[in-house]
Every structure is written in C-alpha cells, then in structure tokens.
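If your schedule permits, I should be very grateful for your opinion on a structural question. What I wish to show you is a protein chain and, alongside it, a tokenised description of its three-dimensional fold. Would you kindly read the sequence against the tokens and tell me how you understand this chain to fold? Here, with my thanks, is the record as I have it:

===
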Amino acid sequence: MRALRLDSLHRVKVVSVDETLNGIDIPIVLSMHANYNEKKLIEVSKEAFSRGLRIGLILGNEYEDVSLSLRSKAMYEIRLGPMTGHPMRTAIALTYAISVIYTTWLMVQ
C-alpha cells in the first residue's frame, strides 16, 4: 500500500467541479473521442509519480460523454482500448485507467 501511495485514500463525495479539481495537478478526461491513448496515460503517470503530482480522472456517465466545459479544464484527454465506436462502461474505464497508472508506478520504483 505504501509503495503505491495508497495510505491516504479519500472517500467519494459530490461537490462542485471547481472544488473537485482543487488540489488535482493533472486532470485527465477519459473519453472515446480523445486523440491520445494509453501510451500518453503511461507517460503522464510516470511524470506524476516522479514529481509527486496528483492525477484526477474525469469521466462521463453511462449515457453522456464529459461536457465541453469540463473538458476545457483537463490537461489531457485519453481514449482507452481500441477504437470500436462504442464507449467503455464507466466503471470499466475507471478500473482500467487506475490499473494502468498503478502498474506504471510500480515499474518506475
């Protein structure tokens, strides 16, 4: 747990967008319409780990993608998986992205 810096997990709560992004160094939108893929997520994860930065993952819900106003607040937009024309379920996308990030952090130690 300590190796992955998981000793201070936060509970989920609903707050405003600006309040949510407060304290996030690298906000990342996960979207099927993004140009970057897992390769960029790995690069960003390495940078975040080496510099001690906090990554925030922004996802839409099961029916709508992330709004344009929220996309404008992100530093990166990442597409996960192959381009199928179908969105990945939100829970799967979140799990997949977290797995990529943590696996990258384990490898850079």
